[in-house]
């Protein structure tokens, strides 16, 4: 787990990210600061998205707020006590190298205008990064079921539970090809 600074409206916001030992993205969260509450929010969010799997080891950098957040989580939940926390030099190299994709996309933007647009943009960059790392599956028939990349993106942005909205999005993309608007879905994935 590590955080990286992202310029937003004249200041910096922090993107917390976690990857496993194979380089696959676990989760990410954009926060306004690097405090203890932000780290706790990230750990609880990452655990909710990967609930059945508990981490066995956790590599942290020298940020004291992350260590304090884990101490509080250990007091609240006994299952966190079995997690080995390592804070040694060079153990975070996997996530530091994985930050490159985010930094490469954010550097030409100079700075994003608001926290909301930064969160949406970074979620899209993270999704593209996961697709490139082959962490996103598009169904049982594979990637050849779509006639274009727009259709694959539409599936990636819409929940499985929201099949009617998915069909409507595909219909719009099929009949309105000049439209470049990003369709947002409201779902609890």
Structure description:
This protein has about 190 residues and is α+β, with helices and mostly antiparallel strands. The protein has 2 domains: about 1-130, Nucleotidyltransferase, domain 5, CATH 3.30.420.10; about 140-189, no CATH class. It is about 45% helix and about 15% strand. It has helices at about 35-50, 65-75, 95-105, 115-130, 150-155, 165-175, and strands spanning about 1-10, 10-20, 25-30, 55-60, 85. The strands form 2 sheets. It has a 3-stranded antiparallel beta sheet with strand order 1-2-3, with helices on both faces. Helix 2 links the parallel strand 4 and strand 5. Helix 1 packs across helix 2 (about 65-75) and helix 5 runs antiparallel to helix 6 (about 165-175).
Write the layout of secondary structure elements.
Blueprint: E1 2-8, E2 11-19, E3 25-31, H1 36-49, E4 57-59, H2 64-76, E5 84-86, H3 93-106, H4 115-132, H5 149-157, H6 163-175
Parallel strand pairs: 4-5
Antiparallel strand pairs: 1-2, 2-3
Structural class: alpha+beta
Main sheet summary: 3 strands, antiparallel
What is the top-level CATH class of the largest domain? Alpha Beta
SSE succession: EEEHEHEHHHH
CATH topology of the largest domain: Nucleotidyltransferase, domain 5
User: Fraction of residues in helices?
Assistant: 40-55%
Give the strand order of the largest sheet, numbering strands 1, 2, ... along the chain.
1-2-3
Principal-axis shape: globular
Q: What is the C-alpha radius of gyration, as a whole number of Å?
A: 18 Å
* Count of individual domains: 2
Fourth-level CATH superfamily of the largest domain: Ribonuclease H-like superfamily/Ribonuclease H
Number of helices: 6
| SS strand fraction | 15-25%
In CATH, the architecture of the largest domain is 2-Layer Sandwich
DSSP, total strands = 5
What's the overall average pLDDT, rounded?
75
Query: Which stretches of 5+ consecutive residues score pLDDT under 50?
Result: 173-189
């Amino acid at each position: 787990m590590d955080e990286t600074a992202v310029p937003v409206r004249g200041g910096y916001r922090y993107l917390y990210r976690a990857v496993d030992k194979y380089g696959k993205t676990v989760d990410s969260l954009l926060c306004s600061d690097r405090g203890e509450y932000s780290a706790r929010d990230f750990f609880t969010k990452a655990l909710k998205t990967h609930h059945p799997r508990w981490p066995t080891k956790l590599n942290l950098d020298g940020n004291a707020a992350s260590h304090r957040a884990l101490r509080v989580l250990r007091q609240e939940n006994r299952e966190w006590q079995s997690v080995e926390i390592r804070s040694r030099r060079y153990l975070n190299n996997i996530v530091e190298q994985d930050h490159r994709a985010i930094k490469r996309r954010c550097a030409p933007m100079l700075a994003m205008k608001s926290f909301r647009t930064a969160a949406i943009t970074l979620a899209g960059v993270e999704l593209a990064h996961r697709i490139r790392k082959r962490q996103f599956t598009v169904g049982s028939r594979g990637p050849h079921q779509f006639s274009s990349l727009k259709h694959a993106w539409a599936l990636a942005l819409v929940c499985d539970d929201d099949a009617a909205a998915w069909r409507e999005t595909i219909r719009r993309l099929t009949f309105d090809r000049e439209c470049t608007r990003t369709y947002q879905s409201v779902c609890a994935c």
